[in-house]
Amino acid sequence: MSTVTTSPGRVTITPPAPPGHRLDWRLRFAALSLIWGFSFLLIKVGTGGYAPFQVTLGRLAFGTAVLAAAMAVRRERLPRGARTWGHLAVAAFLLNALPFSLFAYAELTIPSTLAGICNATSPLWGMALSLVALSEDRPTRVRVAGLGLGFLGVLTVLGAWQGFHGLDATGTALALLASLSYPIGWIYVRRTLAGTGHSHLSMTGAQLLLATVQLAVVTPLFTTMPTRVSVVPLLAIAALGALGTGLAVLLQYGLVAEVGPTTAQMVTYIVPVIATAAGIALLGEALTWSTPVGAAIVLTGAALTQVRPKQRPAPQP
Question: 166-185 burial, b for 16+ CB within 10 Å, e for fewer?
């Protein structure tokens, strides 16, 4: 079956892939969930040998290399126009350079499990911001209830009734700010870059390239060259970039084109489960009852914020 991808001012029909040349979307969905779920573990390992900005720079460089290779194979070019590149520079900061760096700094003091759960609050922030920034995004009782429930889950994860005892406030705040940066970036992209006529691959490749340049400028100002090469952290950074950033983007866009954004975004609710399991099993991170219970509440609330009211059929003439 051919797939039809629509965007403002553009409709693209993608011919069906030859039998056996494309993995079933469920397998790709599972692969994307695993890749993003393990990303928080890889960040933790990477920061064990390198400074957070260095981890982010390596992540972006490896991710950009993967997308550059994909663009070369598909013979796609980078977008043109100073205005487009200016908006992409802002998007690169909000969607890549800033949140990637914040998560790396956060995981210096908080477990990867908590970072993964904080990442799951992104749909909650997005819901709250869209009510203010996007006039066409109207609230409903279900979505507002989901917003409140989600933030109740955040307080449960953080153990608010205990006065946040044993919690690193700075690291947690950085992780929550990172999750807030994503919806701000997507709202900006929606406002400024919709309908440009360029492919998603071309735009994302340019965006990652700009984020890499931003980190290449910032990193030498705040870090010094490592005195030795730490192999395992370096391999973690390479995997984080090539898989968790480059390959993950390709998988995500393929899923959106094939099964639609609603199904594709369900990966958001699986990532913290995998991140928690990986952190406990491989890094020996501690787990209290409030973490899984709070995470379940967060995910339920996030899911409710994505419920859209049913469209009433137009009256027949």
Answer: ebbeebbebbbbbbbbbbbb
